[in-house]
Sequence to fold (355 residues):
Amino acid sequence: MNEISPSQAVYRGLKGTGIDFVASVPCVNLQELLCLVESDPQIVHVPVTREEEGVGICAGAWLGGKRPAILMQNSGLGNSINALASLGSLYKIPLLMVMSHRGCSREPIVGQVPMGQLTGPLLQAMGIPALSPRPGQGEEAVLEAGRLAFEENIQTAVLLDLGYWRGE
Amino acid sequence: MKRTEAIREVAKAASAQDALLVCNIGYPSRELYALEDRPENFYMLGSMGLASSIALGLSLARPERRVMAIDGDGAVLMNLGTLATIASFAPPGYLLVILDNCAYGSTGCQLTCTARSTDLAAVARGAGVSMVREAESLPELVPCLEGQGVVVARVEPGNAQVPIIDLTPEQIRDRFRERCGIPARRG
Fold:
């Protein structure tokens, strides 16, 4: 079997987009991807304390000439909304957001459900295009979201739910 | 010292050091714009709390450049976690100048926690920042502006009478990026 893992597919999408700067807040589903990013000498990886801080750090990195992405759980979207709106959207600073989307079907942790349900509507209300790839589509989705972000100077999101990670 | 006097010194130092300078939302940015506008100034118009983080991202992206940030006590209290990230990476070219007036100066001078017991220099040290200095006066502040890490300067509350910044967000962005050596159209 030469099939690549869901994490490797996302990593290929990041590399194909030319991502060279990553801020991250961990999720259990991102652990393999975080290791791939951390061990890549061409990517500056900045683990941050809170997603909003990561949005600010990525904005600074882009102002300085990098192509940034943030890896996070969707629960952190709520922590970032003012920064996404009054920094990213206001100044038209691009950002590729790769989110582990918890709180969807078969979610075992009840606390993930409220933000899980709100993630799509929140992104829609903010005008942030979001892609939700199925298993096998991770690389293409990241490439497409990355292309959009950096061609249009906008924020885009890739939402990776439990089904994506489990190949279901 | 007055905040506007401290900002004048930071602006002079930034200019002398050819530094990129990120400035906190509200009156601090307006005062800086009125005192010494440079394309290398990034004026924040929103996202309170993120001046220190924007400057950190910039410094990590461009380690060869001198990067300074002007922040306030209220804004730093909103984003204390970033002091830990600053400590972890400690870029040598990075300096965060916290102008502590113990108040939310742009919204009517409501007191912040630094008016009572919170010591932001101690918080920065506790977060692991190895270079933390404190200044109570302009002569104490000036030499601190040559260093790295964090400077906490005590300033009086109160704002200068200065107009609103008449640049669009995209103008601020594009001229700043140009001084980073990036053509306006590149993504």
User: Anything to note?
Assistant: The mean pLDDT of chain A is 97. The radius of gyration of chain A is 14 Å. Chain A touches chain B through 38 residues (CB under 8 Å). The longest strand of chain A covers residues 95-101.
